[in-house]
Amino acid sequence: MLIKPRRVIRNIEIFIFVCVFGLSLYCLVHSTRELTTYELIHNNKSDDISCHYIDGDDYLPTVDGTFSPAPYPIFFHDTSCKGYLNSRQMCAIESAAISHPERNIYVFFSGPVSKSALLGKMSIMYRFSNVMLARVHIDEYSANTPIQFFIENGTLKNTSWAIENTSNVLRFLSLYKWGGVYLDTDVVVVKSFDLLGENWIAKEDVFTINSAAISLDNYTLGRNVASDFLDEIVKHYKSDNWAHNGPGVVTRVLTRYCGTDDLTKMTNSKCQGFTVLEPKYLYPIHYNDRMQYFQHGNPENYPDAYLHHIWNRLTHHLKVPKHSLYSKLAQRYCPSVYQLYNEEFGL
After folding, report:
1. CB–CB of 30/38 below 8 Å?
2. Where does residue 165 fall: left (phi above 0), alpha (psi -120 to 50 degrees), or beta otherwise?
3. Burial of 252 by CB count in 10 Å (0-12 exposed, 13-18 middle, 19+ buried)?
4. CA distance 260 to 270
5. CA angle 191–196–199, rounded 5-degree value
6. What residues have CB less than 8 Å from 231, skipping those under 6 apart?
7. How far apart are CA 236 and CA 251, in angstroms?
8. What is the pLDDT of residues 166-223, one digit of tens each?
9. pTM for the complete prediction?
10. What does the buried/exposed string (b/e) look like for 327-344 if buried means 16 or more CB atoms within 10 Å of the residue's CB?
11. How far apart are the C-alpha atoms of 243 and 208, rounded to whole Å?
């Protein structure tokens, strides 16, 4: 049977429409799925940092002009304004303290911490002689630094992601002032950093360098890099994009130091002696695979790891099953905190 030309054309038009519609629908679904992950990371805004500018009701010693840390310090910053540490944060601190008995661990709070909080479960932190809890007032802490006027202008008070952006600023500031290691509070340290040298950071993947763990010296290369981190914040700060002011800062600065934006080519020699580690050392499980931390697993499967990043923004709501990889890491590397919380660890 012969098919009329108009019918053929009509059938082709219908076929094209179905294909285009189907492709558009697929793209819409796919983009929505990606957007959901993006939103989990970037759009859960927590903007109240009023506690950073409160004096009084604070039972921690204050970091003032006389403060000077011991050599090779390790810093944690809490900018959340909740006024206490949870089990995951305390696990990070204990694991750093146990792995580095010869180093001092400094935990700086941007807001007040009450007496009742210090007498509660947080008191376990005082079991570790190399752990110090202290309060920082950001205005005073940034005085006489390249970021002083950025803080005084109130930029961090009038921004989205105020908690995260303050954390970004303070990590670079502490490393600029003192050198040492900065760590996020959602890590588990499993190995001493001593063999890594003084100036290092790690790729998250082939596209991004992560700023959750950074080590800088305070006299040559590291000092210059820290200064450039602060300069990058001041010149290119974006108030509505915290990733731009954290991982974005370190990626852009090191791209200049290494003379390439190809992370696979960022060797020690190309980067003027700065070490850009492979993900397996600090981010052995990518955030896309984060559920592996909450499933059965063994720490021995990650022999190269110096720490594990738990991606708390994406996992804070998840229970930590007893035989999961995260639970096994906690039992081994922060045993006191894990024993204190037991079944409630990670909640």
Report:
1. no
2. alpha
3. middle
4. 9
5. 130
6. 146
7. 13
8. 999 999 999 999 999 999 999 999 999 999 999 999 999 999 999 999 999 999 999 9
9. 0.87
10. bbbbeebbebbbebbeee
11. 10
